Amino acid sequence: MCVCVCVCVCVPACACSCVCVSVSVCVVINVPSNFTLRAILTCWTDPSSLNKLWSGCDNSTITNSLSASQVDLWQPNSASLIRHNATVDVHVRRNNTRGLRACLQKEHIDFKVFISNLQKEIEKQTGYRSSRKRRSESQYDYEVYHSLEEIQSWMFEINRTHPHLVDMFSIGRSYEGRPLYVLQLGKRTRSYKKAVWIDCGVHAREWIGPAFCQWFVKEALHSYQHDSVMRRLINQLNFYIMPVFNVDGYIFSWTTDRFWRKTRSKNAKYHCRGVDANRNWKVKWCEEGASSHPCDDTYCGPFPESEPEVKAVAKFLRKHKKRVKAYVSIHAYAQMLLYPYSYKYATIPNFNCVESAAHNAVTALYSAYGVRYRYGPASTTLYVSSGSSMDWAYRNGIPYAFAFELRDTGYFGFLLPEALINPTCTETMRAVKTISSGLLKKCETGMYQLDRERYPYL
Fold this sequence. Notes:
The structure is a single chain. This protein is α/β, with parallel strands linked by helices. It contains twelve helices and 16 strands. It has two domains: 2-125, no CATH class; 137-438, Aminopeptidase. Strand 14 (336-339), helix 9 and strand 15 form a beta-alpha-beta unit. The chain is globular, with a radius of gyration of 22 Å. The termini are far apart.
């Protein structure tokens, strides 16, 4: 049955009084009798602001009209990826339609308000920033989210105060001309060392990513003298850490649209801006799980590596492919540790080694606070997607390629509270240390024997 979904729900306003806020979807979907929906309402004063709706459907008959109805999908990020029994997290414009509650009740569709004031949650993360002064590295607060300006100032300070372990450099410029900074972390002991690449902030709205990259550097430097595991890693490996991959989008998420995902490049034919920086890589580019439409959040771009940010990182990794043995990309949210393939249902040649590394990593992560992460091939654990950085890294000779989806599983979504930065980063730190430590050991490939001519880097 096709229905138009719309609602008006009474929720607390930003100014403490209770008002009736119009929440809106107007989505044409095929609704089974056991369709359920949970809603997160917002108190934006901007009429074009978005509300978050959570919905689960017992079949996959939600059509592509989802995309045509100005629905911003959070999880999954494309209507084509909605699967049987899956939970779907979306944002919708609040001024589109009215009467959702009546429609839902008529169709026996349950829903629940989760967060009554989304704007307040956003202000918790962005408010009071203008009063903060530049602080020394020892005074830097790693338990709040930081703007790009603050992060880059911190990078310069880290580089200045730890010259024996840190080197800072730029690998290029973004679409809007901003430098793409990377920190190299490692003791200068010899010319050749294996390396680990870690990038954060590929998707602008995933603020916990840059927070983790900063946390990793801080923990590595502060524990170098007393943590024998970290000291061994720093002495024997190089870490290339890119705290903010999508610098233009990250700034835009701070200044204009908190839930912006893509880069900020312009399109000649459409008013819509940006490309999904995790669909723009030259590996099964623009196939399943990616969109060719510039207005979609999973837009793959006009051609592979069309985005300067992607091109710069790809160029750097190609140049250092003989050294980089692990690629780690930090995303949010879902509480997962993913490895190739994303673009197809198939087993990678060194499955046993990668599976073992993933198992050990999530076990180490669990030991911190008992938080469970799912792990496995991205295509079966999350969804199929093409043109991803993880698949590209693996295809280009990096044997251990992973993508983390950090906390949580959906209650806060992209608005993970600052109070959860510490535990999220602490547990993820254990996982990344475990993956990195594995590079210093020899892995037996077991039943999946590798072609040594094709995979000499293992």
